[in-house]
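Service request form, structural biology core

Requester: graduate student, group of Dr. S.
Request type: structure prediction, single chain
Budget code: on file
Notes: please return the result as structure tokens.

Sequence provided:
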Amino acid sequence: MSIRPVAHEFFAGGGLAGIGLSGDFDIGFANDMDAMKAAAFRANHPQVPFHQGDVWDLGSLELPGRPDLCWASSPCQDVSLAGARGGLEARRSGAFWGFWRLMQGLEAQGRAPRLIVLENVVGLLSSGGGADFAAVCWAMTELGYVVGALEIDAALWLPQSRPRLFVVAMKDAQGPSTAGPRTPFHSPRLIAAQAALPDAVRRRWRWWSLTPPPLRNLDLASVLAPDAACDWFDAPRAEALLSLLAPLHRQKLEAVAASGERRIGAAYRRVRREGDGKHQRLELRFDGLAGCLRTPAGGSSRQYVVAAEQGRVRIRYLTAREAARLMGLPDDYRLPARESAGLKLTGDAVAVPVVRTLSQELLRPALTAAARAA
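Core staff response, request fulfilled:
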């Protein structure tokens, strides 16, 4: 029998949250409805009991034991206030409320976890005019939890700009907290969202405390495959992409190319409103970071790698393996065979070092302190 706390991982994808929790927690159960992600999870975590299917089709009695932590990386588009009202509208409004129904079931059975983490996009703070964030926090406090949130950018650890919101709820446990908000994990938009919460929720609010990591020593170039091993676009294809540059981005590229130094950047296509219409544009960054990894449904195209050296510019796609490295995965992680599937898996996931930091500095210390007080 394990002596470590046990975590259940919902909307688990390929299991990246569990990898970040490993060492502090054992994963006792995992769930996802996507067949490709389920196959990747099983390939990389064969020892973990896994349920493939809609979270709404799960019953709390199907969850084993009493978890210490339930982690939910629910789809970002579906945490709407409508779900808090229950019934058919709850199911239509999103998977988070299906997860929350399970937490309510565990509470009724005396098996509620001491810790709950919801990971989502930062847009949750403002969606529904702030009502959706308030509904999530209200639901947690109504079940007896204290609640707080952190906005964390994976760029503090990895060469990828990836801000995410982590709502952390605790019951019969107290993690490290401060009297008020502190940078960099309590952003102005989080502070504003907290100030707009109902008084009853704010009375049960905690400003969870994390220590900022040392300066990141990785840049985008450090996770990329050698040039000779890559499939670079031919000249016509590269020129067609470069023709989408807006004047400011073209000037940026020309300055980089003229420097004579080897510079590696990231690029992605976006639709921008200009004048009286919308235009597809190629946007560049040469700050050592990739843009936030996304799936095609996430609002932008597949990301490109741009190499400029001695006046020459080359372009190729970012590979799934490189995307996995940008999420903090080791190279022995078994990605899906199809490149598009690997990109989808990583684009939908949570960055491993961020989870590890939360685990080591907030979640596990809260459980340790609770055990000592018992």
